[in-house]
Amino acid sequence: MNLVNPEAIHRALSRWPEVDAENLQAYDAADRLLLEHASRRLDRLAAEGLSDPGLVVIGDRYGAITLPLLAGSPEGGGAPVSTLRIWQDLATGEAALDANAARLGISGFTRIRDDETSAGLYGPALLAGARLVLLRLPKNLAELAELSEAIAEHAHPEVVVLAAGMVKHMTRSMNEVLGADFGSVTASLAKGKARVLTASSPRPQEDTPGGQLAGTPAGGRSSQSFPARERHTGLGRDGDLEIEVYAHGAVFAGAKVDIGTRFLLDFLPRMPKVRTAIDLGCGSGVLATLLAASQPEVRVAACDVSAAAVRSARLTAEAHGVGDRVLAVHADALEGFPPASAELILLNPPFHLGHSVHAGAAIKLFRAAAEVLAPGGELWTVWNSHLGYLPALEKFVGATEIVGRNSKFTVTRTRRRAAKPA
Ligand SMILES: C[S@@+](CC[C@H](N)C(=O)[O-])C[C@H]1O[C@@H](n2cnc3c(N)ncnc32)[C@H](O)[C@@H]1O
How many beta carbons lie within 10 A of that of residue 137, not counting itself? Predict the structure, then answer.
């Protein structure tokens, strides 16, 4: 397949609306190597008379995989991609790919979103009939396991998965995870510090070996391995809170309760009694659920940039009996939330962007909180003390008081100032 100048497309890509920084670009050698392997595979399938292999692209971050493939399609003047389904976990990735596609005048992909009609996160709408799946290897093994199981279960029996990553982010465990669901997993030679794993011969799901992965439920892997589910007791200042946490593979901390989150839960009784609250960056929904349980009048929006988190938070809240007062929302920061509409926001901020540690991810959420909090409303945040977020909270939101500190974490209460923040 003759790709129409992927380098030119790559150079034109932007990461917007993700936080940009000089060391973070919108494509890498793994995207390029994946395209090379994909175009060879598409040629081979076309030579076998298969012009539409039901191509699926999963985890394309900004369009570096999808857009060159479509530019090389018949509409773009090149060879064979006629249908292409994509799945992106992050709302920022969706927005970036859409913006890049619009700017470059490239169309033709079908985005599959979580419509909750499938028991799993990745269902037949995404995968049915797929003979070729292109995957950016996620850094999280549980996410890879969930994807691998779903592809083996729903895609065509002759599906081939090409999974690419940068060598520095790849581990042998990734081969093992794919090997639980596929009879053959091989690794390419490294090129430009990237590598592609090729998985084929999906195993029938009832035959998969029962290797237990961290964060997956007991009983080995099967198509029911996800969402993971774990019960936690002894939470909160008085040790009287408990919760059953549901988590799809891509969720931060899986079905565990993060230690920073545990510390913030100690302060639930000190938080103001309100009617409108937000769990910003909700993950599996622990904070939203236990806040809703502790305040019968409150309605909580549980918002996360990750689709896997949003579905998990909904499940956690429903299992706890507060699903009618917890609304799970897939959005970047608090996009779409009316200004000055919330009385209380809880936040355990992210400190990563992909593989890079980056304070910009937290600052973006502080600014979003300032916009959406009503004047006088409160932002309760927990952070690793060495990150020193106090000045940023004061600058972007308002007067900030340290309400708790342990050996690792600080919990702060920030009152949204009346005047518009910086
Ligand atoms: C440290 S985790 C906390 C998760 C959860 N609140 C908990 O306590 O377990 C941070 C969460 O923020 C989410 N996140 C990161 N950037 C975001 C953004 N721009 N908008 C919304 N959520 C975001 C991540 O997906 C992740 O779930």
Answer: 25
Ligand 1 centroid, distance to 23 Cα (angstroms): 22
Equal fold, 6-207 vs 228-415:
yes
**Where in the chain are the domains?**
6-207, 228-415
- pLDDT per 10-residue tile (average), the chain, 422 residues: 79 85 81 95 91 94 95 57 92 96 94 87 95 97 97 97 97 97 97 97 72 39 78 98 98 96 98 98 98 98 98 98 98 97 97 63 95 97 96 97 98 89 53
User: In CATH, which superfamily holds the domain spanning 6-207?
Assistant: Vaccinia Virus protein VP39 (3.40.50.150)
pTM: 0.93
- Residue of the CA atom closest to atom 2 of ligand 1: 350
Ligand 1 geometric centre to CA of 176 (Å): 28
Q: Assign residue 108 a region (left: φ > 0; alpha: ψ between -120 and 50; beta: otherwise).
A: left
Q: Which CATH class is domain 228-415?
A: alpha beta
Are 166 and 32 contacting, i.e. CB atoms less than 8 angstroms apart? no
Ligand 1, atom 18, lies closest to the CA of: 333
Atom of ligand 1 nearest to the CA of 92: 19
